[in-house]
Amino acid sequence: MSLVGIWCTLVSIVFYLLSYPFYQRKWLSWAYAKALNVGVRFVLGIKVDVVGRDNMLAGPAVITMNHQSNFDPLLQGPVFPKNAIIIGKKDLLKIPFWGRLFRATNNIMVDRNARGDGEGSKNGAGVDEAITRLQADDCYVWIFPEGTRSHGEGLGQFKRGAFIMAIEAQVPIIPMISKPLHYVLDIPNKIAKGGRHEIKILPSICTVGMTLNDLPELITHCEQLYAKHLAAYLGCAPEDVFA
Predict the structure, then answer these.
(1) Which of 87, 90, 108 is nearest to 99 (CA)?
(2) Is the dihedral of CA 81, 1, 49, 197 positive or negative?
(3) How confident is the model at residue 112 (pLDDT cuts 50, 70, 90)?
C-alpha cells in the first residue's frame, strides 16, 4: 500500500505538469485514471474484471457507481470513459496536485455547504451545470449517487442529483456496480490481499419521456437494482445491504 501511495504521488506530479499545456481537456481524467490503475494492478496484484461492456453507450449519459472508499478511483480506470466529467466537492481543490488536476480536467466543483449554486440556480449542487454540459457537450457525467463514501459498510441512500440530471437532460443512466472491496483489500488496516475485483456495467435506464414526477420511482428502482447485485456479492438479503 505504501508503494501504491508513492506511485499515485508520482503519477499525480506528472499529470499536474501535463495540466498546464492541456488545461480543460477531459481526456486528462481518462489518462490519469488509467495510469493510477496500473499501480494497483502491478504493485498490489489486483486485476479489475469488467462485466457487461456491451451495455456501455455512447454519451451523453449519466454514469452512477457505488462509492466505498477513497481507494475507489484507483480501480475505476478500466471503465472510466474518455469524454467524462466528474462532480466533486470543492474541498478536493485543497489536495496538492490532485486539486489542480480536478480543476484542469473540466470537472464540476460544488460546495455542499452552500444552499445553491448562485443566482438563477434551480436544482443546486452543480446539477444545473451538469444538465447544460450533458445537453451541449455529448459527455458523460460520472457521479456517486450516495453522495459520500459508505466506508464498506453497505449502500447509502441515493441523493436526488444524479437522477434530476438524467431526467432534465433526457439522457440515459448507466449503472456501474463495484464489488465490495473487502475481498481484495483490508482497508482499515491498509493491507492489500490481491486478487480479482469486479465492476459490472448494467443495462442503461432510459429517461426519455420522464418528468420530475417520476423522480421518486426512478431513485427507488436504482437503489433496489444496486441492492440486488451487492446482496448477491455479499450473500445476504437486498434489504440488509443498506448502511
Answers:
(1) 90
(2) negative
(3) low
Contact status, residue 200 vs residue 64, Cβ threshold 8 Å: no
Tens digit of each residue's pLDDT (9 = 90 or more) over 201-230:
999 999 999 999 999 999 999 999 999 999
Taken in order 159, 162, 168, 173, the sign of the CA dihedral is negative
* DSSP assigned state of 160: S
Place of cell 449554486: 117
2-240 carries CATH number 3.40.1130: yes
Q: How many CB atoms lie within 10 A of CB 24?
A: 10
Q: Of 19-28, 35-44, 102-111, where does mean pLDDT reach its minimum?
A: 102-111
CA–CA gap between residue 226 and residue 236 (Å, rounded): 13
What is the C-alpha separation between 219 and 197, in angstroms, rounded?
Answer: 26
Summarize pLDDT for 187-205 with one digit per residue, the tens.
778 788 889 999 999 999 9
